[in-house]
């Protein structure tokens, strides 16, 4: 298919930067153990995340979808014809709302999905090509950082980098600053950044979203260990860890951990690493920060990303910001 080009910057077809696992070694040898959340997204993890998005407790995807449905037309009118670059594109379902809006205005459709999971990237790109006969897709299996550094100049009048789904919340404040500067580096003056963020709200709503009654989030969390087993010849026994997620009100973030159910030693042979776990010791696998619109607007402006429009839903649970460099 001529309309699809795929490039893999990580994983099996290593072109630029093979994942050496040094980030895993670093995280598991610290006093407070942690893992980079990007390791959630192997094929199984991406599938589980899709299931999470449809859970009754996980309001994020539904709410952002409502906002996109209401304002995609407005977004397309503001930006004019532009190339859509999406970081963490996953199944690209919400992006279809944007593609539809650009298509309705007869703008050319150029889409660059970027995801660490090559499997879901390829299958969703192929599905998109079937559904949008005029679409050109250039898919990149890469981390955000690598992908942003690799973007070629666009052939369209403008570009919009989309970072929706509140994945920004999975970055620490420092990582967030670095990320914003990578965004400004990747854009030309006048180009756009579309950001979707989960907003602060009572714990009673937040905690169930990360502790669903069907246990899908627990399975998603535990799957990170299966991914490490597979990628680094590990012997994590997932029955000996449990999911633990809570809202840290001081930091305004969900913290998701895996707690060791006994004292145990785990080996990752490919990394030449043995890790000791005490009974009850945890690995921090993810933070999911919840944002204040005024604070994030100031942060974006301070980095030169001027918020042009901010849209929310009727509960003010989720925010969508269109910024311009
Ligand atoms: C991808 N990211 C925005 C999700 C979140 O809500 O932070 C990942 C997730 N973790 C548990 N459930 C969903």
From TrEMBL:
Any Pfam family hit: Methyltransf_33
InterPro entries hit by this protein: EgtD, EgtD_Methyltrsf_superfamily, MeTrfase_dom, MeTrfase_EgtD-like, SAM-dependent_MTases_sf
Keyword Transferase attributed: yes
Top-level taxon of origin: Bacteria
Location of the Histidine-specific methyltransferase SAM-dependent domain: 22-324
Keyword field: Methyltransferase, Transferase
Record's signal peptide: none
GO molecular function, one term: methyltransferase activity
Gene Ontology process terms (BP): methylation
Segments forming a coiled coil: none
NCBIfam families cross-referenced by the UniProt entry: egtD_ergothio
Protein name (record): Histidine-specific methyltransferase SAM-dependent domain-containing protein
């Amino acid at each position: 298919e001529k309309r699809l080009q795929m490039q893999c910057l990580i994983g099996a077809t290593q072109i630029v930067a093979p994942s050496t696992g040094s980030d895993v070694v670093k995280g598991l040898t610290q006093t407070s153990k942690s893992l980079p959340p990007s390791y959630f997204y192997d094929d199984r993890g991406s599938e589980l995340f899709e299931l999470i998005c449809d859970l009754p407790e996980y309001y994020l995807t539904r709410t952002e979808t409502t906002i996109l449905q209401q304002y995609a037309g407005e977004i397309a009118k503001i930006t004019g014809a532009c190339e859509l670059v999406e970081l963490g594109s996953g199944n690209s379902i919400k992006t279809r709302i944007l593609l539809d809006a650009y298509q309705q205005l007869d703008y050319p459709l150029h889409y660059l999905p970027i995801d660490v999971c090559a499997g879901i990237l390829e299958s969703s790109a192929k599905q998109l090509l079937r559904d949008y006969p005029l679409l050109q897709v250039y898919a990149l299996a890469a981390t955000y950082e690598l992908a942003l550094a690799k973007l070629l100049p666009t052939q369209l009048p403008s570009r919009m980098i989309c970072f929706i789904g509140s994945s920004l919340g999975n970055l620490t404040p420092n990582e967030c600053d670095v990320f914003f500067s990578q965004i400004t580096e990747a854009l030309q003056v006048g180009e756009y950044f579309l950001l979707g963020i989960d907003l602060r709200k009572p714990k009673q709503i937040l905690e169930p979203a990360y502790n669903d009654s069907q246990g899908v989030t627990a399975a998603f969390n535990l799957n990170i260990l299966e991914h490490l087993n597979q990628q680094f010849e590990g012997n994590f026994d997932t029955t000996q860890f449990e999911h633990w997620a809570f809202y840290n009100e001081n930091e305004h973030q969900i913290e998701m951990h895996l707690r060791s159910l006994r004292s145990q030693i785990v080996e990752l042979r490919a990394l030449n690493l043995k890790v000791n776990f005490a009974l009850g010791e945890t690995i921090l696998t993810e933070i999911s920060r919840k944002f204040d619109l005024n604070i994030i607007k100031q942060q974006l402006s301070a980095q030169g990303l001027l918020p042009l429009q901010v849209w929310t839903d009727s509960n003010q649970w989720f925010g969508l910001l269109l910024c311009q460099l």
